[in-house]
Automatic annotation (TrEMBL):
Record-annotated Peptidase M14 domain positions: 29-305
Protein name: M14 family metallocarboxypeptidase
Protein family membership: Belongs to the peptidase M14 family.
Lineage: Bacteria, Pseudomonadati, Pseudomonadota, Gammaproteobacteria, Alteromonadales
Pfam families: AstE_AspA_cat
PROSITE patterns cross-referenced by the UniProt entry: PEPTIDASE_M14
Coiled-coil regions, chain positions: none
Presence of the UniProt keyword Metal-binding in the record: yes
Cofactor(s) demanded: Zn(2+)
Keyword Disulfide bond: no
Keyword entries, A-Z: Hydrolase, Metal-binding, Zinc
Cited CDD domains: M14_REP34-like (cd06231)
InterPro entries: AstE_AspA_cat (IPR055438), Peptidase_M14 (IPR000834)
Length: 305
């Protein structure tokens, strides 16, 4: 289905600053980063190292950015990065990262150093938005001199640690609002005609086409299948218009597209896509699916190592 209409901008013309200001003025705070995210981070201070790595100052408020680390980093252990909330509206990415931090991180820390940035885009979390206030998608902005403060802050933090990463797992969702709001808004911003995609009913993974590691992806899919259903491909053997590489897995050119999973040199990377709008899933299942991804990935890496 295609729909080229959007209430902001002129069809066929890229947004100017006035259009972006109009879009920003239409955004409203719908939930609390302080109450729903920072409270949970504070509860982890007794077991994990909590470090503020940055701060975002927007008209709606000041948003401190936090990373969690397993205690007693050991240079002899490999290091794994978990990122959530790059798209703030993708709720289970944020809360899956926090649930893993609460329930599993210490157990895995026997074998790995683990870094978790649970909510990279807190303004997006509060406004249930894919973009930041400048109408920039942080998950297309992971490159040098990034225009997205959210992306720049976490990249600078990870670089400052001066660590070689073994793996990077980025937690996301695909939602019905992709078609109802975010893809039409993107087309309007770019002055193009929107083409909606067929949203898969279920969980899938996006691997990096430059380092797909198919067995790594396969093991993750098998782990998640114990928690929630895996998305079947469409009649073209594709998911969101991209050819399926194996059951539940597609590949993207991560670094070329400026995706979060592409900004490090970690050899094992993946992006999760949970579908919270499925009639066959609920919010708790979605959170547990994100945890299952991390657990399955780390178990695989430990056994392979």
């Amino acid at each position: 289905m295609t729909d080229s209409t959007y209430p902001i901008g002129t069809p066929g013309t890229k947004w100017n600053d006035d259009d972006k200001a109009q879009w920003l003025a239409s955004q409203v705070i719908k939930r609390s980063y302080q109450d729903e995210v920072l409270t949970l981070i504070n509860e982890l201070k007794g077991t994990l190292t909590v470090e503020q790595y940055g701060e975002l100052n927007y008209n709606d408020g000041c948003y401190p950015l936090y990373a969690l680390q397993t205690p007693n980093f050991d240079d002899t252990k490999p290091t794994v990065l978990i990122t959530g909330g790059v798209h703030g509206y993708e709720t289970s990415g944020v809360h899956g990262a926090l649930r893993f931090a609460k329930t599993s991180a210490l157990n895995h820390s026997k074998h790995f150093n683990i870094i978790i940035t649970p909510c990279i885009s807190p303004w997006g979390y509060e406004t249930i938005n894919r973009w930041n206030p400048s109408a920039i998608d942080p998950n297309r902005s992971f490159y040098e001199n990034s225009p997205a403060h959210e992306s720049a802050a976490v990249m600078a933090y990870v670089k400052s640690l001066n660590l070689d990463l073994l793996a990077h797992i980025d937690l996301h969702e695909t939602t019905d609002s992709d078609n109802s709001e975010f893809r039409p808004a993107l087309a309007a911003r770019e002055g193009t005609t929107n083409t909606n995609w067929n949203i898969p009913d279920g969980f899938y993974l996006v691997a990096d086409s430059k380092k797909p590691e198919p067995e790594f992806q396969k093991v993750i899919i098998e782990g998640v299948a114990k928690v929630t259903h895996i998305a079947p491909s469409d009649e073209n053997n594709a998911l969101i218009g991209v050819p399926q590489e194996q059951f539940g897995v597609i590949n993207y050119a991560a670094r070329q597209l400026g995706l979060c999973m592409g900004f490090t040199d970690a050899p094992f990377v993946t992006t999760t896509e949970v579908y919270p709008d499925s009639p066959s899933a609920n919010s708790e299942q979605c959170i547990l699916a994100q945890v299952a991804v991390i657990d399955s990935a780390l178990n695989y890496l430990r056994n392979e190592g």
